[in-house]
């Protein structure tokens, strides 16, 4: 990716992470979301917090793990941050899978967010298992897939902004964001991997 795209990823990840932290840490939970979702969020506050805060850490740490200069010059820091990142992915993923069952928008949202959580957890597991087996390229590929799903936190909010900006009813467009926030990201990750002439190397 070129420098402009990389910079946008760093900036957007940091901004959304900071926004989410302050919104969920300092505002009443119901005020951090659309009015249509307040009752549901307040009814499952523990699940929301268990999902949001680990996910924020993963979102902010993720881009730094792809910085080649940082990785080569600070390999031990890279490894430690990688462990923290993946721990947050697993915590955020399992709590996200739980919360997907209560997501606003009915079955379309439930299935979309559930698949996102399952793929997030699964790709994190493969990223970890591949580096344990010293399969460096496979690890890089799986991390690209995994962070594309982490980045759904950003694309979800971009989608919300677009939906509100063009005047679509929240109840109409939100269920589809449960898919649109991660499927395009995942396709981009696969295109990047294909461009590098590599494979996921699951085994």
From TrEMBL:
Q: Which UniProt keywords are given for this protein, alphabetically ordered? A: Membrane, Transmembrane, Transmembrane helix
Question: Which Pfam family, any one of them, does this sequence belong to?
Answer: DUF2306
InterPro entries, per the entry = DUF2306_membrane
Residue ranges crossing the lipid bilayer per the database entry: 7-26, 46-64, 84-104, 110-131, 143-167, 173-193
What protein name does the entry list? DUF2306 domain-containing protein
Organism the protein comes from = Aquirufa ecclesiirivi
């Amino acid at each position: 990716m070129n420098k402009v795209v990389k910079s946008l990823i760093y900036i957007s990840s940091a901004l959304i992470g900071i926004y989410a932290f302050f919104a969920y840490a300092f505002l009443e939970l119901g005020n951090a979301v659309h009015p249509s979702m307040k009752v549901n969020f307040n009814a499952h506050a523990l699940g929301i917090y268990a999902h949001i805060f680990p996910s924020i850490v993963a979102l902010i740490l993720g881009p730094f793990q792809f910085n080649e200069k940082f990785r080569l010059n600070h390999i031990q820091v890279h490894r430690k941050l990688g462990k923290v990142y993946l721990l947050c992915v697993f915590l955020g993923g399992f709590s996200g899978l739980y919360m997907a069952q209560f997501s606003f928008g009915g079955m379309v949202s439930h299935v979309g967010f559930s698949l996102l959580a399952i793929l997030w957890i699964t790709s994190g597991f493969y990223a970890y298992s591949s580096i344990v087996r010293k399969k460096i390229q496979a690890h890089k590929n799986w991390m690209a897939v995994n962070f594309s799903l982490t980045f759904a936190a950003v694309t979800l909010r971009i989608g919300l902004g677009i939906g509100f900006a063009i005047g679509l009813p929240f109840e109409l467009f939100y269920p589809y964001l449960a898919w649109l926030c991660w499927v395009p990201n995942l396709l981009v990750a696969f295109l990047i991997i294909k461009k590098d002439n590599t494979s996921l190397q699951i085994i």
